[in-house]
Amino acid sequence: MKYTTIKTIIIFLLSLNVYSQNNSGIVKYEVSLNFTLEDIVTEEKKQKKELRTMRKIISESKNSEVVLKFESTKSFSSVSKRMKINEEKTGTDFVYSRAGRDKKFITNLITNSNEMQECKVLEKCYLIQQPSLEWQLTQETKLIGSYLCYKAINISSKNKKKKPIAWYTTTISASFGPKQYFGLPGLILELEEAAVIFKAKEITLNPKDKIVFDTLKGIKINKEAYNKKVKEAYSDFYKI
Predict the structure, then answer these.
(1) Alpha helices in 128-219 (DSSP H)
(2) 4-239 has CATH 2.50.20 classification
(3) pLDDT tens-digit profile of 77-122?
C-alpha cells in the first residue's frame, strides 16, 4: 500500500483553488468514548484499582457535541453541548474533557496555524499556538453517510501507542476538522483519538445566514512555553 506524507502548508496551497463550491459551512460532531473496558483489559494487565476507575469512567460517560464553523480560510471549533451528568457522583466528565471542555480552537489557513484559547488552568486567558501537523495519507477508504472518505494518520502526534486517525472527504473541499486538526484535502468527517471519537452527524454547507466567529482574546504563547508556565504554577503536582 502506498502512503503519502504531507504538511499542512502544502494543503493550504491546494485548498485555495477549490473553495468556490463549499466555501462555508457548519458541522456538528458527536463525541463518544473510543474504547471499552474489554479493550483495556486485553491491552495489558491492570491493577484492580485502575480497572475500577476505568469501569466508573466508562459507565458514567455521556456523549458531547462539538461544532465546527468554517469559511474559505478560517474555522472555529468548540464544544456546544454537554450531556447532563451527576457531578456529585462522577466529579468529572471524561468525554466532555477530551472533546475540548471549554477550550476554543481557531484555525487560519493564511498563517497555517491553529490557536487554542485556555482560560481555566491559569489565572489569565492564553491563546496557545498548537504544533504544526504532519499527515500520512493512505488509499484506504470508507463511506460515511453518502460521502466517500479517505484515511489519514497524524504522524506528528507524540502519542506512541495510537496516532490520531482522520477520515476526510474531498467532496467537501474545506481543509478543516474539530479541535486543532486541519490541513487535509477535504473536510474531516470522523476523527479517532486514543480516548474519544468524533463523528459528523449534521453538515450544513453555505448556510443562508452569515457565519459569525467568536473573537478569541488572550496572551499569545507557544505550547512549549505555556506548558512550562503550568509546571511552574503546579510544581508540587508534577513532583509526584
Answers:
(1) none
(2) yes
(3) 999 866 554 444 444 588 998 999 999 999 999 999 999 999 988 9
Taking the CB of residue 229, how many other CB atoms lie within 10 A of it?
15
Give the whole-angstrom CA distance, residue 179 versus residue 167: 15
Q: Which residue pairs, CB below 8 angstroms and at least 24 apart, start in 77-84?
A: 77/104, 77/105, 77/106, 77/107, 77/176, 77/177, 77/178, 77/179, 78/103, 78/104, 78/105, 78/214, 79/31, 79/103, 80/28
Q: In degrees, to the nearest 5, what angle opens at C-alpha 15 toward C-alphas 197 and 109?
A: 75
Considering the entire predicted model, what is its pTM? Answer: 0.83
Residues 206-232 pLDDT 10s? 999 999 898 899 999 999 999 999 999
Nearest 10 degrees: Cα torsion 158, 103, 205, 142: 30
Spell out the domain ranges in the chain.
4-239
Handedness of CA 149, 153, 157, 160 (dihedral sign): positive
CA distance 165 to 190: 8
